[in-house]
Design goal:
Elements (H helix, E strand, L loop, with lengths): L5 E6 L3 H19 L21 E8 L9 H4 L22 E2 L29 H8 L3 E4 L6 H14 L2 E4 L9 H10 L2 E4 L8 H14 L3 E11 L2 H5 L7 H12 L11 E8 L6 E11 L5 E11 L5 H17 L3 E2 L1 H7 L9 H12 L6
Parallel strand pairs: 1-2, 1-4, 2-3, 4-5, 5-6, 6-11, 7-8
Antiparallel strand pairs: 7-9, 9-10
């Protein structure tokens, strides 16, 4: 391993993984061309002595026949991935995508859709995940499994506990925010971050900011909804409403946590609405908030957000990876409360976003343990 490098593994070589890997190389290329480049799109260029391009992928797992057995630099562009291409000039890292465990990673309804839009299981025997993690020398595993893959997420979390690898859970299966799982990571002295990544400028962070603004300005929020549409495999997967329980909990609690008095369940509706194939990786959010201000006079707010979904979480994830590495360097185990509150929708402990940001800066500086 190179000095100052952070070696990670990725579960699920989908759009988010593609955007992250492309983004790392995009900023590496910029730094080579102009060491004084303006780091647009990054919250931190240097975080605790680590730059984005200090992150390298040492192992990757997927179950799709178009990705398994392929070099990672090719697999990130394979169907059904459909995120925007931001960088293509990759050197061969030597990483080949390994066959992971399927478990509950694929919803049955996806077989009813065209192959170029859905998952196709590879006719391969699953690898020994723990052996791959050990032999690849990775320190952190990034979980990008589809929503509803609770059994599969627990399988990879268990593999991390058995190998001493840190777990960053970017999807809404509750591991790091679960007291039992979080204690297991703490007892093993393994830092972990989760659950369910909060995008840089996504529906959740904007909805949270507006809910807090209503609260701070004395406006009583009576009811609200957030409805999202998209055309990637995430939205196709979520057509199976049985897989959405934790996703709805994660997104709803992220908003409710900003209110002094939570809304009654019938007055808040947050979650995906529909799959629109031609949107590809573009996500459109429709948000409405109804409240009462001075003299109980009604006011309504409506917002429409259109954003490329997968790159929107790249910068946040890069910060989470680097904070996790710092924790490993310091010998800190268990859930990292500060970066989890800042980067994730469903952390073990919720904090307002401005406070979470301050906590992360204190953690980076060594003024806060977790």
């Amino acid at each position: 391993m190179k000095k100052n490098s952070i070696r990670i593994a990725i579960v699920g070589v989908g759009n988010c993984a593609s955007a992250l890997i492309q983004g790392i190389e995009f900023y590496r290329d910029l730094s080579r061309k102009n060491p004084k480049f303006e780091p647009l799109g990054l919250m931190h260029l240097d975080l605790g002595g680590y730059r984005p391009w200090d992150i390298e992928v040492g192992a990757a797992f997927d179950i799709d026949r178009r990705k398994v057995g392929k070099p990672l630099r090719e697999a990130i562009f394979a169907k059904p991935n459909c995120t925007k291409t931001i960088f293509t000039q990759f050197n061969d890292s030597g990483v080949v995508v390994s066959m992971g465990e399927v478990l509950d990673g694929i919803s049955d309804h996806m077989k009813d859709y065209p192959e170029e839009r859905s998952f196709v299981i590879a006719d391969e025997k699953p690898c020994n995940v723990e052996k791959v993690l050990k032999e690849s020398g990775v320190e952190i595993l990034l979980n990008y499994l589809p929503v509803g893959s609770d059994q599969a997420t627990q399988f990879y979390a268990e593999a991390c506990l058995n190998t001493g690898v840190s777990f960053i859970n970017c999807m809404p299966s509750f591991i790091v925010s679960d007291p039992i799982w979080s204690k297991r990571f703490e007892d093993k002295g393994i830092p972990a971050i989760g659950d369910d990544v909060k995008s840089q400028m996504g529906a959740t962070i904007i909805h949270r900011a507006l809910a807090k603004l209503f609260e701070d300005r004395g406006v009583k929020l009576d009811r609200t909804y957030q409805i999202n549409t998209g055309g990637n495999t995430d939205f196709l997967n979520m057509l199976n409403r049985n897989r959405l329980k934790n996703k709805r909990i994660s997104k709803t609690e992220a908003i409710q946590s900003q209110l002094g008095v939570p809304l009654e369940p019938e007055n808040i509706h947050i979650g995906p609405s529909d799959y629109v194939p031609w949107q590809n990786d573009n996500k459109v959010c429709f948000l409405r908030m109804e409240g009462r201000g001075f003299g109980e006079v009604p006011l309504n707010l409506e917002l429409r957000l259109s954003v490329e979904d997968s790159p929107n979480s790249g910068g946040i994830t890069i910060d989470a990876i680097r904070c996790c590495k710092i924790a490993r360097n310091r010998g800190i185990g268990g859930p990292l409360l500060s970066i989890s509150a800042y980067a994730m929708k469903h952390p073990l402990v919720q904090f307002p976003d401005n406070e979470a940001k301050r906590m992360v800066e204190e953690f980076i500086e060594g003024k806060r343990e977790r």
